[in-house]
Write a structure and sequence with these properties.
By secondary structure, the protein is an alpha+beta fold. It contains eight helices and eight strands.
Length: about 250
């Protein structure tokens, strides 16, 4: 299992959005009305997270930064030009699609009165009952293909945001090089080199170890403490020596 810890709020927001988009894609593919209910709830969560005014401009700047950095590698020995061009091409397409969005991601969805009526009730416990939202109750009883077509039409307006997030997170993860480390008595610390800015820590632990790493970090230090859940799920310090994989991504 891989645990990730962001160094800053921008990466934290991107990881949250990636998590929501992955869940949304999975739920839309299913057939049951209850899965499509939670797909709508997830879509509204995406809209809430994406409501930050500067999110779109920040993502566009990050895409441009990565494009410029990668373009500088052209002509270097050992660089596969075809692979480089493919990556830059995907960045360009993602940048263009996101740039064409007018306003915040999901702004057009906010003008859909039916969707907003569902959104206003769906976060209330039991708020989407038949007597509260009869039109929504009727929609849930449509056949799965019809509901899925509606969901795909609505979520398509969020697709440029999803693609930009996945491009940027993918580039960030690929920037790191995994190293095998040892947590002595369950504890590990590493000083970070000055002059380098890291954005994400990734910790891989073996599935059969039943360990949960508590990760903290800033620009000078990374700390990992291995924990183990007890019978009630409460985390307790693991005191044995543990091997794990650490990746610092910039």
């Amino acid at each position: 299992m891989i645990y990730e810890h962001p160094f800053n709020e921008g990466i934290r927001t991107m990881l949250r959005l990636e998590h929501l988009f992955d869940r949304l894609d999975e739920l839309v593919r299913r057939d049951s009305a209850i899965d499509h209910h939670y797909a709508l709830a997830t879509m509204f969560e995406v809209m809430d997270v994406a409501a930050r005014a500067d999110l779109k401009s920040d993502l566009l700047m990050e895409l441009e930064r990565h494009r410029s950095q990668l373009a500088s590698y052209r002509g270097h020995p050992g660089i596969a030009e075809g692979v480089l061009d493919a990556v830059i091409g995907r960045i360009d397409r993602s940048h263009a699609a996101l740039n064409q969005l007018s306003g915040k991601a999901g702004a057009q969805l906010a003008s859909n009165e039916w969707l907003m009526s569902v959104r206003s009730r769906i976060s209330i416990p039991g708020g989407s009952c038949v007597f509260d939202l009869p039109a929504y109750f009727a929609w849930q009883h449509l056949d799965a293909a019809r509901r899925r077509a509606d969901l795909m039409r609505w979520t398509s307006q969020l697709a440029p945001l999803a693609d930009a997030i996945r491009v940027l997170i993918g580039l960030l993860r690929e920037s790191g090089h995994p190293q095998r480390m040892m947590a002595l008595a369950g504890q590990y610390q590493q000083s970070l080199p000055q002059g380098k800015t890291y954005h994400l820590i990734r910790v891989r632990v073996d599935d059969d170890e039943l360990l949960v790493p508590e990760i903290s970090g800033h620009r000078l230090l990374v700390s990992v403490r291995m924990m183990r859940p007890d019978a009630e799920g409460k985390l307790r310090p693991a005191t044995g020596d543990t091997s794990f994989e650490l990746t610092l991504c910039q």
